[in-house]
Every structure is written in structure tokens, then in C-alpha cells.
Amino acid sequence: MIPRSDFTGDKIDLHEVRQQARVTDFALLRYLERVFGLPVEQIRAGMLTDAVLQAMAMSASSVHGAGYKLVIDNFEVVSTLATKTAAIPAAMYRGQVASSKDAG
Fold first, then answer.
1. Of the residues 62, 79, 80, 83, which has the maximum number of CB atoms within 10 A of its CB?
2. Cβ pair 80, 69 in contact under 8 A
């Protein structure tokens, strides 16, 4: 068993620490990328379809996809909202998402 005390010998209450602990979205994204090999940059490029670029050019606040909506702010996709339950395309898992330069 691992001792649960700090460097001064005071007891550490892991239950209390667990209640305060959190993982940021950035850390989670990097974990998925670096530990599980998720092709984050390919997925990012695949999100910038011609439809999204056109929406950005027209100062649209969002664009809808198959089961999701991308929220746009000043030429940045800032959020993704599910509009219905949709499976993630298997191509994304295999790293086969086309980059925006390959589209149309």
C-alpha cells in the first residue's frame, strides 16, 4: 500500500483531494492525442470543410453538420454541439479524415 502522507508526515485525504481535482479540456485532448494516438490535427483539418469556410466568410455564427452544429466566432470554431445522437465516423478513428486542402 502506498503511504498517504505528505512530505511532513501529515495524512493526505485522497477523498477530499479527489473532490477538488479536475482535468482541463486541453489536458484531456492532449491525453487522447498522445496516449491513445487520436489524430487531433487531422480531425481539426477535417472540421474545416468548404461549408464551414463559407459560413466563416459570411460571418455566420454556426454551421450544421450531420448530427452536430459548429459554433463560429470570428473565423474560429469555438464549440461543437450535438443536435442528435450520432456516431463518430469510423474514418476519424482511422485517421482518414481529409484535410481542408483536399476538399473540393
1. 62
2. yes
Model pTM? 0.65
State the distance between the two ends of the chain, measured CA to CA, in whole angstroms.
59
Three-state secondary-structure class, residue 32: helix
CA 66 to chain CA mean position, Å: 17
Sign of CA dihedral 39, 43, 45, 46: positive
- The amino acid occupying position 93 is Y
Whether residue 67 contacts residue 82, with contact meaning beta carbons closer than 8 Å, is answered with yes
Helix (H) / strand (E) containing 82 = strand 76-82
C-alpha cell at 4: 498517504
d(CA 48, CA 98): 10
